[in-house]
Design goal:
There is one protein chain. With 78 residues, the chain is mostly beta strands. The chain contains one helix and seven strands; from the N terminus they run αβββββββ. It has one helix at 3-6, and strands at residues 10-13, 19-21, 27-30, 37-47, 52-60, 64-67, 71-74. The strands form two sheets. Strands 2-1-7-6 form a four-stranded mixed beta sheet, with no helix packed on it. Strands 3-4-5 form a three-stranded antiparallel beta sheet, with no helix packed on it. It starts with a helix and ends with a strand.
Length: 78
């Protein structure tokens, strides 16, 4: 699966049933020596009264519960 395909899937928190969003832009934290993916990073846009702020949400590979056709289910309690 390509990184661009992952960025189109909605991310859902398994424990809380919370929708974390559709990444759109997705980056990966990769170990340069082994090529293993450690985490995915994607921006979360939040509106404040005066400006739009962009924070990065980091989902570690060990937190990914399932990657489905339309969504990625994560369990951040692991």
């Amino acid at each position: 699966m390509r990184l661009s395909e992952m960025s189109a899937k909605e991310i859902v928190d398994y424990e809380q049933g919370e929708r974390l969003g559709v990444p759109g832009r997705l980056d990966a934290r990769i170990d340069e020596t082994t090529g293993e993916i450690h985490a995915f990073l994607f921006p979360t846009n939040r509106w404040t009264p005066f400006r739009r702020s962009e924070d990065m949400l980091e989902i570690h590979w060990r937190h990914i519960h399932t990657i489905g056709e339309d969504m990625i289910i994560v369990d951040r309690t692991k």
